[in-house]
Amino acid sequence: MSGPVVVMGVSGSGKSTVGAALAQRLRVPFADADDFHSPANIAKMSAGEPLTDADRGPWLDDIGRWLAEHREGGVMSCSALRHIYRDRLRAACPDVVFVHLTGTPEVIAARQATRPGHFMPTSLLASQFDTLEDLGADERGVVVDVDRNVDAIVERVVAAPEIAGGTR
Ligand SMILES: Nc1ncnc2c1ncn2[C@@H]1O[C@H](COP(=O)(O)OP(=O)(O)O)[C@@H](O)[C@H]1O
Ligand SMILES: O=C(O)[C@H](O)[C@@H](O)[C@H](O)[C@H](O)COP(=O)(O)O
């Protein structure tokens, strides 16, 4: 493995599902950034209010610490919507690789809407897309469209040179 992987994307894109399956496939530990949110952040999102950069700062630092502790292998599902958020994760763990799960708002909204018992309301999806910044040419990562089954997404990820071909 070439470094820890962050599976990124908007709410409902499949980060938790694909991240867990990818970790199992790679036989490395898995963590979900949803579990790192403070109660205040959860309350805010549950009330339909988007998080701000300030809300996300300490959360990203905790995730960065987890990545640094899993430099030899690990998968973290984390929205990591903006370039500056990914910069913050790279500052903590420079060899992190991003897997961006992309999809149309229609496909993702349908998945988010049918997911049972999650704190994130569907009303926040528009702000997630507004906040999202695609991976730049300067960023180490892979983009995978989610309009296929989970196994196919995982196979696509493990076949990517950024994931399989590293020297670490
Ligand atoms: N490739 C896929 N095909 C069909 N359903 C999917 C796929 N990936 C995820 N799902 C479903 O879509 C919903 C959102 O997935 P989830 O992993 O919770 O997304 P996220 O963690 O990005 O919010 C869940 O109900 C999940 O079972
Ligand atoms: O930065 C954010 O606004 C949040 O991290 C957000 O992107 C994330 O989507 C929520 O934690 C909900 O969790 P799900 O992505 O699992 O819906």
From TrEMBL:
InterPro entries: P-loop_NTPase, Shikimate/glucono_kinase, Therm_gnt_kin
Name of the molecule in the record: Gluconokinase
PANTHER family, sorted: GLUCONOKINASE-RELATED
Pfam family, one: SKI
Pathway: Carbohydrate acid metabolism
Sorted UniProt keywords: ATP-binding, Gluconate utilization, Kinase, Nucleotide-binding, Transferase
Top-level EC class: transferase
GO cellular component, as recorded: cytoplasm
MF (Gene Ontology): ATP binding; gluconokinase activity
GO process terms (BP): D-gluconate metabolic process
